[in-house]
Amino acid sequence: MAMELSMALAAPPGGGLLAPPPPAPPGKEQQVAGVGILLQISMLVLSFVLGHVLRRHRFYYLPEASASLLIGLVVGGLANISNTETNTRTWFNFHEEFFFLFLLPPIIFQSGFSLSPKPFFANFGAIVTFAILGTFIASIVTGMLVYLGGLTFLMYKLPLVECLMFGALISATDPVTVLSIFQELGSDVNLYALVFGESVLNDAMAISLYRTMSSVRSNAAGGENIFMMILQFLEIFVGSMSSGVGVGFISSLLFKYAGLDIDNLQNLECCLFVLFPYFSYMLAEGLGLSGIVSILFTGMVMKHYTYSNLSDNSQRFVSAFFHLLSSLAETFVFIYMGFDIAMEEHSWSHVGFIIFSIIFIIVARAANVFSCAYLVNISRPEHRRIPLNHQKALCFSGLRGAMAFALALQSVHELPEGHGKTILTATTAIVVLTVLLIGGSTGTMLEALDVIGDENTSIETYEDNNGYIPPTYEEGTSSGGGLRMKLKEFHKSTTSFTALDKNYLTPFFTSQTDDDADDFGDQPQNQRQGFYDQ
């Protein structure tokens, strides 16, 4: 939980402590709560209206997420310098439990639920490479550079495990601003699928890495650290993924055989559908796994299998409901985060740590994108390789957001006071700079890289084979033999899974026909922040 604002008790001359002030009357507490909630709702309304005005006038230098963050910063700054009652101000403290249990689940579920299957599965191998291997590379590179910077006295020195914890939390990207402008200006669907798919899986990977590093730090040091770290990560990630997929499959069978798709049971049908994602999340948390990973894969499975077992009216309702819920949660997160950044106590005594951390995450992002793009490209035919301008756009889209901030707040309570405060301050600076500066320059960047204005590029390539484009490999291709062949086998296994899904899984878990499946695959692509979808 975020640091609560406390009032110091003055000591009288006799040496004892003054008696605490009498509690506020119940009516006063209700009034304070009402004022706090009213202010939150007012900021939400202002954020939505301002975002609409900015988009209507095509002013891309201040995207919606940046505007929401600024509103929170301004209101929080005014509250911090005013004589606002402490009770009112505490209504805006950023509590990690509230963020992880109530705000983040609908956002992550909608991310998985809104994935358009054709471009996602066409780029599935690349997305997994960037999200899993790339996040791991970025985390390790950042952590090691921060550790070496401390050893060489360039910046504040932290122990190795704490540096790796910082590398894990700061590797969580949140390119909502970039994706919003991608959607508005129109961009190559392959590039959009890569950025969106990476951001969906990246959050889950970063949380798993952070929890693994935190667990290693808590459990004594020794030569088994690296081995235990790998085992714990696999346990958290694979266990959470299995839990989420299992819940998704159970829900699909329930809706297939329970006969709920009749008029007088549609209310029950919708209620059950809405409860399953939270069931998945809480099940994973109760088992000591990652609820975020679990609910992400539940969303993907429920969209692919369970959704088609609903009645038409229920399909429309649940799509609109989760879309609305995630939009409200996402906007509130940026307001909430901005307010708390202005209110939180920060440690600005280690400016070098902040400056070099920014440099190191840029280096780590480049190492992540270019190394993973190289691996993807050597396994693809020439016409499907990721071009250099798309790789640069991927580098640029690595904004940091609420996930990194929430994990940094957790580190304040898990690490020694000076270390946690330093990490929180550096993370705060990185979040504000990336959201405001990089987010505001996204439109200019897209134009400079020539990746906009071609919204429908390559859409026709997804028409066959359930959305997956099987690569065409020629015999006797040049160098890179062993690694190239292994990567090709991975792509072939993806093709095999597509056939398995179409021939066995879809008929078993759904009641749709082949024509229904084709119609389902042609649904328009939704976006994480698509509140303004036309």
Automatic annotation (TrEMBL):
Highest rank taxon of the organism: Eukaryota
Membrane topology: Multi-pass membrane protein
Biological process according to GO: potassium ion transmembrane transport; regulation of intracellular pH; sodium ion import across plasma membrane
Reaction equations catalysed: Na(+)(in) + H(+)(out) = Na(+)(out) + H(+)(in); K(+)(in) + H(+)(out) = K(+)(out) + H(+)(in)
Location of the protein in the cell: Membrane
A GO MF label: sodium:proton antiporter activity
Native source organism of the sequence: Hordeum vulgare subsp. vulgare
Transmembrane segments: 34-54, 121-148, 230-255, 275-297, 317-339, 351-373, 393-410, 422-439
Family annotation (InterPro entries): Cation/H_exchanger_CPA1, Cation/H_exchanger_TM, NaH_exchanger
Cation/H+ exchanger transmembrane domain residues: 47-447
Compositionally skewed regions (Polar residues) per UniProt: 523-534
Region of interest called Disordered, as start-end residue ranges on this chain: 513-534
Protein name: Sodium/hydrogen exchanger
A GO term from the CC aspect: plasma membrane
Family the UniProt entry places it in: Belongs to the monovalent cation:proton antiporter 1 (CPA1) transporter (TC 2.A.36) family.
Keywords associated with the record: Antiport, Ion transport, Membrane, Potassium, Potassium transport, Sodium, Sodium transport, Transmembrane, Transmembrane helix, Transport
Primary localization: membrane
